[in-house]
Amino acid sequence: QQQVKQSPQSLIVQKGGISIINCAYENTAFDYFPWYQQFPGKGPALLIAIRPDVSEKKEGRFTISFNKSAKQFSLHIMDSQPGDSATYFCAASMKNHDKIIFGKGTRLHILP
Amino acid sequence: GAGVSQTPSNKVTEKGKYVELRCDPISGHTALYWYRQSLGQGPEFLIYFQGTGAADDSGLPNDRFFAVRPEGSVSTLKIQRTERGDSAVYLCASSLVHGLYEQYFGPGTRLTVT
């Protein structure tokens, strides 16, 4: 059973556009929701994270929106750039930074 | 400073052979994690160490997999009698203190079992 479901599998966005990736979870014991960015040949790197007591968190061009009642959260990348082209993973853990449960990933491609 | 390093970066082995994968965590990090990432999938948790002891090995798929961290720093993931299904990228991560700080990932070891 997949604990964190992510969509879409792949996404193509024009430069300057908004990229949106969605995730859903079932386990209400999760209390930490990070997003990771992974480039080919590299390990995942933490991009931004949120806790369920906050509905939105923004860091630069990256925003997480969190809907606790719907058990859904999403990543918005504003003014998307070709350098943002990577695979993005949503994730969850039960205690801050405990073992991380990853979604299957979204391959994002930003057209120049 | 230096990040998490993993060696080798690539390993090709024959079915049935034994392999060891090494992880050097960030200096001073007490927690160390192993994940496995199959093609097109997200990483899956295998085991984590707090200091020298394996605090949670619930993700190890079977008894062919074993990991050690004898001095609380470098860790080795050991796989016996490798199978083709073991082919994946094995990622190591470290954290200053488990449960309190971000996990930093290494570049991984790509294991191919032929």
Care to describe what's here?
- The complex is a heterodimer of chains A (112) and B (114).
- With 112 residues, chain A is an all-beta fold.
- Chain A has a single domain, classed as Immunoglobulin-like.
- In chain A, strands 2, 4, 5, 9, 10 and 11 form a six-stranded mixed sheet that branches. Chain A has a five-stranded antiparallel sheet with strand order 1-3-8-7-6, with no helix packed on it.
- In chain A, strand 7 and strand 8 form a beta hairpin.
- Chain A is globular and about 40 Å long.
- The model of chain A has no long low-confidence stretch (mean pLDDT 94).
- With 114 residues, chain B is mostly beta strands.
- Chain B has one domain: Immunoglobulins (Immunoglobulin-like, Sandwich), CATH 2.60.40.
- Chain B is 0% helix and 48% strand.
- Chain B contains no helices and eleven strands.
- In chain B, strands 2, 4, 5, 6, 9, 10 and 11 form a seven-stranded mixed sheet that branches. Chain B has a four-stranded antiparallel sheet with strand order 1-3-8-7, with no helix packed on it.
- The radius of gyration of chain B is 13 Å and the shape is globular.
- The model of chain B has no long low-confidence stretch (mean pLDDT 94).
Largest sheet of chain A: 6 strands, mixed
What is the assigned CATH homologous superfamily of chain B?
Answer: Immunoglobulins
Distance between the termini of chain B: 37 Å
Largest sheet of chain B: 7 strands, mixed
Radius of gyration of chain A: 13 Å
Order of helices and strands of chain A: EEEEEEEEEEE
- Helix/strand structural class of chain A: mainly beta
Mean pLDDT of chain A: 94
Question: Could you tell me the strand content of chain B as a percent range?
Answer: over 45%
User: CATH topology of chain B, anyone?
Assistant: Immunoglobulin-like
Catalogue the unreliable spans of chain B: none
CATH class membership of chain A = Mainly Beta
Q: How many E strands of chain B? A: 11
| Number of beta-strand segments of chain A | 11
Write down the domain tally of chain A: 1
Query: What is the straight-line distance between the termini of chain A?
Result: 38 Å
CATH architecture tag of chain A: Sandwich
Q: CATH homologous superfamily name of chain A?
A: Immunoglobulins
Order of helices and strands of chain B: EEEEEEEEEEE
